[in-house]
Write a structure and sequence with these properties.
The complex is a heterodimer of chains A (237) and B (274). Helices cover 35% and strands 14% of the residues of chain A. Chain A is of the alpha+beta class and 237 residues long. The chains are: A alpha+beta (237), B mainly beta (274). At the A-B interface, helix 1, helix 3, helix 6 and strand 9 of A face helix 1, strand 7, strand 11, helix 4 and strand 15 of B.
């Protein structure tokens, strides 16, 4: 209950402070370079209230928007290797928000091979796949060790990037695991939303929105469904 | 929370020492929530509509999802099996509470307990004295910091009788009804409108909250705009509304020292035709 009351006052505070920037998210998203998630620990020690408003302000300035440049980022993978989105300019990139212990990730990575099948089919056509784990330290499925183990368990052939301070997740407005983003060869965000149209934690959907968007992008056409509502577990920021 | 955090910290510390991967055994989602099928009346009266309820009791700090809009999760399934001749009505979901997580993940959830009401039409041909067995099943997602799936089953046997008294569970129905949305008051104390692509709801000296139904038109920045402490809630509609789009959901008016009141909102999202 304390947490809830605290959130309540944060919301109330944000309402008073944030009136002027109510529609700041409508401004074009600025490509932004973020630091690798090295200071997550430090940030955790900060006052929770301040931390939340900081994040709020940050998000307002940089939230990714379909049709605009996808925010740039540099994160470490589970082996500690830097992965820079800018290095993939000229390629189509799929981002998958990931939490290995979320029932919806289990649905698509273990109960079904949704993402592995997608990877096999589209990587052959030059599409890059990156999973991002924005789970904060100590939360369900967070951290490089758990992710590395899951990568083996789920036989994933693409890197899982560590975003422990949640900055990249918030920049993209990633709400759920999975939450998918497709970036075009020119670096523009072309799709954001759900992997498919079945919100249950068991059955894969009839329409895979990411596959549909990739087919259209690779055929040189416009993405017909550029946005859907993602579903899954909340990202454990 | 404190206990949980320190347990996690302890486990992390322990893991660092023995240098093995962190791997928590996930809690059992079927044990974190107890679903019970309940009846408002003590008996089923032939030719009447009885009220059943699926009562969900959550472990402290855990929540399940409302059937309207949330960023994450999904509502518990409502599955009740009734004998031939009996007919179930549409489930009635009580208003949820806002759950705003880090990263502006906004969910509309039930904490502690919630009862989803389900009307049951009893056939006129039902014979007094007969026993009727009703079974319910549900699958849910239950979350606190973690999210885990769970499921449960429950059954109840009721007698058909000429008269029904309040059952032992009647209070749960009364509590749920306090949170069921009603028609907006006609005295003008609560006003709602959509003008110029903005949904506005006003009620003097109250906190106003809006919980969008799953079919509601897309609204802008609900984590911030879905609740107002000024008595005036304003939410812009995202994009261009089509004539079919509607602002649908539940409005909560929470005045100080009063029980919250809940109203149904169903307005065209576009401009009225001139």
């Amino acid at each position: 209950m304390t947490t809830k009351t605290l959130f309540g006052s944060i919301i109330a505070g944000a309402l008073f402070l944030g009136v002027g920037s109510a529609f700041a998210q409508d401004k074009p998203a600025q490509p932004a370079q973020t630091q690798p998630a090295t200071d997550a620990k430090h940030e955790k020690k900060q006052d929770k209230n301040a931390k939340h408003s900081d994040k709020h302000a940050e998000k307002k300035a940089e939230t990714a928007k379909v049709g605009e440049s996808a925010p740039e980022f540099k994160l470490k993978d589970t082996d500690g290797k830097d992965v820079n989105l800018a290095d993939y300019k000229g390629k189509v990139v799929v981002l998958e928000w990931f939490n290995p212990d979320c029932p919806f990730i289990i649905k698509h990575h273990q109960k079904n091979n949704t993402f592995n099948d997608l990877y096999t089919k589209y990587n052959a056509k030059g599409v890059v796949f990156l999973a991002i784990n924005s789970g904060a330290e100590g939360k369900q499925g967070a951290g490089a060790e758990r992710s590395a183990k899951a990568k083996t368990e789920y036989k994933m052939q693409y890197p899982i990037l560590m975003d422990g301070n949640g900055k990249v997740g918030q920049m993209y407005g990633a709400k759920t695991t999975p939450h998918c983003f497709v970036i075009g060869k020119d670096g523009k965000l072309l799709y954001q939303g759900a992997i498919d149209d079945d919100k249950s934690p068991e059955t894969p959907g009839k329409t895979n929105y990411v596959a549909k968007a990739l087919d259209e992008i690779l055929a040189g056409s416009t993405v017909s469904t550029p946005e859907t509502k993602s579903y899954g577990c909340p990202v454990k920021y | 929370m404190i206990a949980h955090t320190s347990l996690v910290a302890f486990c992390v510390a322990l893991t660092n020492v023995v240098s093995t991967p962190v791997n928590f055994a996930p809690p059992d989602g079927s044990k974190l929530v107890t679903m019970t099928l309940i009846s408002e009346g003590s008996q089923l009266v032939p030719g009447s509509t009885a009220m059943l309820g699926m009562h969900f009791a959550m472990s402290p700090k855990w929540h399940i999802y409302w059937n309207g809009l949330s960023d994450a999760g999904f509502p518990p399934s409502i599955e009740i099996v009734v004998p031939p001749g009996f007919e179930l009505g549409e489930p009635q979901w009580p208003a949820p509470v806002r759950h705003l997580g880090e990263g502006d993940v906004l969910d509309h959830v039930y904490e502690k307990e919630a009862t989803v009401l389900v009307p049951l039409k009893v056939p006129a041909s039902a014979k007094p004295g007969d026993s009727v067995r009703l079974t319910a099943a549900s699958k849910w997602l239950v979350c606190d910091d973690a999210c885990v799936p769970g499921e449960g089953k429950s059954e109840i046997t009721l007698k058909v009788g000429e008269k029904a008294e309040a059952s032992a569970s009647a209070a749960k129905f009364a509590a749920a009804r306090l949170r069921l949305p009603k028609a907006l008051p006609t005295d003008g104390s609560v006003k709602t409108q959509v003008v110029g692509g903005v949904f506005t709801a006003t009620a003097a000296q109250a906190t106003v909250r809006f919980f969008p139904a799953s079919d509601c038109v897309a609204l802008k920045d609900l984590p911030k705009n879905g609740e107002s402490t000024t008595g005036r809630l304003q939410i812009a509609i995202a994009g261009e509304a089509t004539p079919k789009d509607r602002v649908q959901g539940i409005l909560e008016i929470a005045a100080e020292k009063q029980e919250s009141r809940f109203y149904s909102v169903d307005l065209p999202a576009g401009e009225p035709k001139k």
